[in-house]
Amino acid sequence: MARTITVEGMSCGGCESTVEDALEGVAGVESASADREADAATVEGDAADDDLVAAVEDAGYDASA
Fold first, then answer.
1. Is the pTM for the entire model greater than 0.90?
2. Least buried of 4, 5, 11, 64, by fewest C-beta within 10 Å?
3. In terms of C-beta density within 10 A (0-12 exposed, 13-18 middle, 19 or more buried), how is residue 22 classed?
4. In what order do the strands lie in the sheet with 40-45?
């Protein structure tokens, strides 16, 4: 199942990679793709929204599902 979460604060490709790595570290995530221009990340898998938001916030960005 794919879903998109809002991620604010990404300003470069390195930021996108950091967010993707954080999301891919969450149990249940199959893949993640961040887009700084859209202020969003798309996640494939069945991880809980709260876990996704927490992972992104732990990486230093603002997130909401």
1. yes
2. 11
3. buried
4. 29-35, 40-45, 2-8, 62-64
